[in-house]
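Could you help me review a protein record that somebody else here produced? What it holds is a sequence and that sequence's fold in token form. I have pasted the whole thing underneath without changing anything:
=====
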Amino acid sequence: MQLSNYGSFPMNIPVVVEDDLFLYPFMIVPIFVNDEANIKAINHAMDHNELIFIATAKVGEEENRTKESFYPAGVVGSIMRKVALPDGRVKLLFQGLARGKVLEVTQENPLMVEVDLIKSLPYEENRINAVLAILRDKIKTLSSVNPQFPPDLLRTIEENHDPHRIIDLIASTIKLRKEQAYRLFIEADAEERLLLLIDYIIEEVEALKLQKEIKSKVHNKMEQINKEYFLKEQLKQIQKELGVDNQRDEEIEEYYEKLESLKEAMPKDAYKEIKKQIDRLSRMHPDSADANLLQNYVEWMLEIPFGKISTKKLSIDEVKKQLDHDHYSLKKPKERIAEYFAVRELLSLRGKDQKDSKGTILCFFGPPGVGKTSLANSIATALKRPLVRIALGGLEDVNELRGHRRTYIGAMPGRIVQGLIDAKEMNPVMVLDEIDKVGRSHRGDPTSVLLEILDPEQNSEFRDYYANFNIDLSQVIFIATANDIGQIPAPLRDRMEFIQVSSYTPQEKLEIAKKYLIPQEMKKHGLQNAEVSLSLPALREMIEKYTREAGVRNLRRRIAQILRKCARLILQEGRDKVSITPKNLPEFLDKIVFEIDEADKKDRVGVVNGLAWTSVGGDVLKIEAVKIKGKGALQLTGSLGDVMKESAKIALSVVKVLIDEGKIRIDSSKLPKKAKSKEGEEEESNAIYNCYDLHLHVPEGATPKDGPSAGIAMASVIASILSDKKVRSSVAMTGELTLTGKVLQIGGLKEKLIAAHKAGIKRALIPKKNFERDLDEIPDEVKEALEIVPVTRIEEVLKEVLI
């Protein structure tokens, strides 16, 4: 059948679009058609005795054919036979005659296109023969690796010398992608087509070699697995016959399964170490000494929550809301916590890795009972993360944190890893309680491990001795608590940012009791609001006279003590309601604990109100002095530390200088008669400080006292006793003194001024630097009740104090 029988090209003929690969000239192939557009095109060709154009679809079959939906190249051929099938399809026997290309679409229904033949370009026969030789060599290689390659095709290629016919024969046999087939199909240059085909064959050969290699490996692996399976089954049957329990094998299989499920989430060295130990365990006799140790190790390590993290988005609003809900006052700590999480939220919103922020570790410090740990609880609640609390008080063994090496009997992971296991997440809130009370012993210094745990530069690769691989702690939010930051080693202090949680004022304690403590304790004791009435005056008296603390822990205990007695009265005596007033308060509470002595209303000589900081908040210390006839000796009592003893000596020297300079006037009538009657004696012999021995005492001698803030108080009491001038009882003071009479700044100002307020002091003298720097931290009610006076020199202090 010749193309010339159908007229000349270009020619307008119908199109059948097939989803299969390209057809080639001189092929006689069956085609099955089922869509309406193609059937219309076939009927049109049969009715008009026309050729038909078979094109290949670019994507899946579509009902509405467009020029863009099929490749603009295909085979022009004729329909040899058409058969209608019972299922509605049409079967064609199609004979390809020539390659053609679409010039334009002339009709849509049925789809008609104007087609022209792809005319081959002239070629140089010697070059084509050389390339054909290479092609035949590649085809032999392909046939050697592809068992499905038709062997008679090699003979046909050898006998044929038409390059286009050879290309079409090979292209119809090998698997080509549509885009590759199109490039080969549309090309008119014989040499270019041959080179393209050679490239495609090389790709096919490489792919088949790789496929063969993979199949070989898979086959070998399957043989190994089958072999292991049969051996294990035989071993199970042998153990069953011997009466050996096979439960251990099932456990080991479970370990392997769990390890594989965690493989993607855990570090490579962790996977390698755990798998190594499971392999050892599987080979070990169950009664051997090390089997139990290894099994414990595997079980511990598989409990570590690799890859499990809290997905709750950070929200500074939720953190702030939770802090305000759980805590009254504490303005500064709340602000700093909000700032800390604002940075983390901003990094999260901007898609940055929080590891790059190298955030600081927060440390809440302050007296007991002021809410340091409960602040951490509120943070964990706001973030919807588990809370892990690690008590460090008295910890001496470094292995408690880092884990024991598995060579020791009873070895366990460290508390940090155990905390992660308990939390079941890798990013909990971890509270390191009482970090200032970590001990040191011959078993090591735990603070050295804390340096690594709390350093954002290092804790992404924290190594636990028991685990023997690195664990990432960078996502854990560490919060430390301490009472006295002076007890924390300097390198460890450098890792943390400190947030002071100070003492509460009486009014703040009252609000905390009303809003938090009483409702919480009522719920714990099963009492209803209508059954107990605790009046505000009774609550105030309880705060002032029955507790001695900076926080509210003892206040909670007192409230619980009252409510226990109320519960007993309701049950035993059948009372409907129990009222607590200042009159009947002693019936519910055992004994009065005066927190701070009230200030004396009478001015006295040789008694000064000093302000001190203690571990339970501020206190007012009455420093007393007496003079005894003598030669100027100084005696100190009251369990004073070295710093306070030095302060007393400095204070005496400063007062001596002031007396010598005439800034403190001494009534000559007060000098002893013996000193006045002598003539010709040196001038200093007549000085009053050489005529008396001084005795300074700070009451409650059983309580050790030390600290650099009593200098001006000691100088004032010495000046008072030597000059016989009274001290204003309504004035209290704090400040250190230099030898030249300068007043230095001190710490703990808030606690000291709160103590002065509680004691009824009207006026407080503080160093000027503290007045300029720390006054904004003082509660408003304290500043309203106290007149705070800044001083820079001892002369100003004496002018304010002495009458």
Observations:
- The chain has five domains: 3-117, 245-302, 316-500, 506-588, 607-667+684-801.
- The chain has 27 helices and 24 strands.
- The domain at 3-117 is CATH 2.30.130.40 (Archaeosine Trna-guanine Transglycosylase; Chain: A, domain 4).
- The two ends are 137 Å apart (CA to CA).
